[in-house]
Amino acid sequence: MTLEEKIKTKTAVIGVIGLGYVGLPMAVTVARKGFKVLGVDISDYAVTHVNDGENYIGDVDNQELKTLVAEGRIKADKEYACLRETDVIMIAVPTPLDKYQQPDSSYVKSAVESLSKNLSEDTLVILESTTYPGTTEEILVPILGKENSYKVGENLFIAFSPERVDPGNKDFKTANTPKVVGGVTAECNRISKIFYNAILDAPICLVSSPAVAEMEKIYENTFRNINIALANEMTILCEKMGLDIWEVIDAAKTKPYGFMAFYPGPGIGGHCIPLDPFYLTWKARGYGYHTRLIELAGEINNAMPDFVVNKLQRKLNEKKKSLSNSKILLLGAAYKKDIEDMRESPIQDIIVLLDKYQSDFYYHDPHIPEFYNEKNEKSYKSVPLENLKSYDAIIIITDHNAFDYPAIVKHSRLILDTRNACKGIKSDNIIRL
């Protein structure tokens, strides 16, 4: 039976390397469509929890995972040897930046090298990890093709298809988000489209090469990064001019064309927007080009935690209080509302600054009971949301829907609202970003 026939009859076995925020939702999506899924992860925690049917990712339904595992549709392993029986393999491993803000491809290389030793003929391999243009053809093709004497496009099929996971998005999940695919050859594209059509309920957009798909993903997040930076810079200017940035944006939104609303905040969080643009700046240097706008946007967004703390300091000074002698509550720790994801959350930098000023600070987040801040190497636990009058100031960092904002405002001395969460609530105790 050909690979195409296996996919169409759902007898193909699907492998997923990396069972994190991207990999596990994809594994569930594939299994839901009737395929058997074998997941591989280096984490004992991930493997054990998956095999026990215990979910640890916000966008995965707990009961659905338990049911799929019980039915034998999903199984996890730490060893790559299980992938020898797979027909399609998706790679969804981390692609962080190193300390020099350069792409760290070690996870991708390690995964591909391990896979190459357990790769069967007539297999489709798709990289979904966000990375710089050229990764698929520079890393996957040489290792998987040459080391196995397979010919790409004939008995080995390789493509790049960027993940588009948006944690907490109630409308768009893995299954219904349009998919961009760039195969190494036309046949790779054809087989990839057949596969994604079998597992997704969304349009498939084929592009001419993996590099185009890789660039497309970076462009998506760079677009957002730059527009958020513009909103943040406008916020700083509006404060100096005595204007309300939120009112300005609401007014601009009334234009039915030519404007897309982006909002300011205490900083940029998540795995994608703060990191992905730097993949491009690194790659551009190899072509002798300096991506000035992208790097400037990064500087503006990275400066927002300082802006927030400095604004709080000024407001406390007006009340004859110093930041170092104030008790501060940070409301929300996740990088966006109603999720449990803390990756690159602005609270991490704000905590470092408050620590530097020797402030007495605490945090509360119903989604994150505790966390370790790598930026100052300290651990923190969420405190109960009570006795708000004991705090000199509260900074709303994440606008979770679980928070009762009218009650919080009523019982607080001073609130610095960085998310416009208190919109419509009238109080002299509220200052907005």
Overall geometry comes to elongated
Listing every helix as H and every strand as E from the N terminus to the C terminus, the arrangement reads: HEHEHHEEHEHEEHEHHHHHEHEEEEHEE
Strand count: 15
**CATH architecture grouping of the largest domain:** 3-Layer(aba) Sandwich
Beta-strand proportion: 15-25%
Low-confidence stretches: none
- Count of separate structural domains: 2
CATH fold group of the largest domain: Rossmann fold
Oligomer: single chain
Number of H- or I-type helical stretches: 14
The major sheet is characterized as: 8 strands, mixed
| Rg (C-alpha, Å) | 24 Å
Order of strands, main sheet, comes to: 3-2-1-4-5-6-7-8
Name the CATH superfamily assignment of the largest domain.
NAD(P)-binding Rossmann-like Domain
Relative helix content: 25-40%
CATH class categorisation of the largest domain: Alpha Beta
Provide the structure class. alpha/beta
| Mean of residue pLDDT values | 95
